[in-house]
Recover the amino acids of this structure.
């Protein structure tokens, strides 16, 4: 067992909770922070925390949870004084593309002010590794596929994407100024058991089982690089124990945009296998043994048509290799959904 004193923000979230369940097998002390906001069903967040508590008891690990907003610097100061974490995995954020059109302020609060507080926290604690969540949405309407970390990402098409791109820039400046080993991970559409109710797998599963129509945008011409939660956790786990280093590939004419003279790295973390939305629905139909009612609609503002991750950079760095096929992933997700909700 290691004694790293890892802080995970967004501990009650989909990805954060899954990562903690894995880290408990490796670490003596894990500190979790989450404000348990009601962006989606809080009962789901609490049931994830319950699983963590049960597993920590079984493994006799030291699991500590604090409920607060990361915008509240005083609460973060308390964590510094009490635990002085050495590794920070920052997953707390206002997630979701579409909601950023309705409530942009919640994105400014959590993803900009909150993110700044986490950077200050990393500086004050002199952490030996900082890993944070970026998003595939930074690629906006880029047409060149697959998406590579060195592609231009200067044209976000949602405020959510703009906050994630801002996080990459903010983190780079702190990494450079204070020598903080920093890794930003661009997640590609994560799905699986205990997933987010605002995302397609949960929305579609609910609609199919309740015989309600599913709105399919861009008239069905949509592809997503769906990535199974266990693969994401494997990648996060690897980055947790491998702090970024200054890059040999850095050149001062910035040809390789994702490399830096600071200990800073950006990685795509996806499945590298885009799935068309109608195949995704047919897999849910198969697993639920029920037909979906489809309602074809135009593309929504802020939405992108295609996501597709080039994962060779993270593959080289930590040997990341997605293991769960889409078919198996949807089977696992469907089983969990029926068990949890029906
Ligand atoms: N799930 C995906 O497909 C996906 C894709 C790209 C990027 N991401 C990013 O990955 C991270 C984790 O995503 P997720 O799917 O687990 O989302 P999630 O919403 O399930 O988890 C985020 C957690 O952070 C908490 N939180 C939000 N704002 C907070 C604040 N101000 N203070 C304290 N806690 C706060 C929420 O209560 C929630 O439990 C996020 O940064 C998200 O933007 C996720």
């Amino acid at each position: 067992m290691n004694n790293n004193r890892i802080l995970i923000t967004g501990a009650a979230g989909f990805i954060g909770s899954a990562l903690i369940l894995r880290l408990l097998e490796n670490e003596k002390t894990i500190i979790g922070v989450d404000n348990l906001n009601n962006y989606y069903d809080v009962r789901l967040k609490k049931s994830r925390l319950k699983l963590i508590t049960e597993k920590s008891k079984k493994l006799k690990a030291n699991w500590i949870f604090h409920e607060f907003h990361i915008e509240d610097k005083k609460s973060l100061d308390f964590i510094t004084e009490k635990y002085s974490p050495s590794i920070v995995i920052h997953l707390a954020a206002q997630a979701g593309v579409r909601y950023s059109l309705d409530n942009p302020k919640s994105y400014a609060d959590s993803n900009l002010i909150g993110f700044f507080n986490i950077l200050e926290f990393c500086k004050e604690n002199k952490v030996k590794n900082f890993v944070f969540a970026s998003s595939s949405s930074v690629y906006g309407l880029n047409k060149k596929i697959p998406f590579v970390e060195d592609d231009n990402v200067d044209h976000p098409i949602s405020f959510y994407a703009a906050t994630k791109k801002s996080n990459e820039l903010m983190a780079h400046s702190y990494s450079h100024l204070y020598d903080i080993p920093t890794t930003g991970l661009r997640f590609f559409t994560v799905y699986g058991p205990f997933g987010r109710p605002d995302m397609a797998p949960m929305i579609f599963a609910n609609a199919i089982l309740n015989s309600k129509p599913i709105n399919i945008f861009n008239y069905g011409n949509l592809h997503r690089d769906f990535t199974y939660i266990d693969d994401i956790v494997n990648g996060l786990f690897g980055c947790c124990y491998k702090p970024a280093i200054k890059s040999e590939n850095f050149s001062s004419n910035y040809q390789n945009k994702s490399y830096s003279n600071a200990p800073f790295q950006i990685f795509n973390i996806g499945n590298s296998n885009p799935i068309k939305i109608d195949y995704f629905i047919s897999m849910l139909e198969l697993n639920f043994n029920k037909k979906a009612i489809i309602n074809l609609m135009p593309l929504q503002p802020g939405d992108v048509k295609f996501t597709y991750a080039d994962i060779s950079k993270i593959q080289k760095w930590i040997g990341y290799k997605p293991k769960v096929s889409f078919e198996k992933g949807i089977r696992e997700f469907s089983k969990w959904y029926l068990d949890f909700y029906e």
About this structure: The first strand starts at residue 6 and ends at 9.
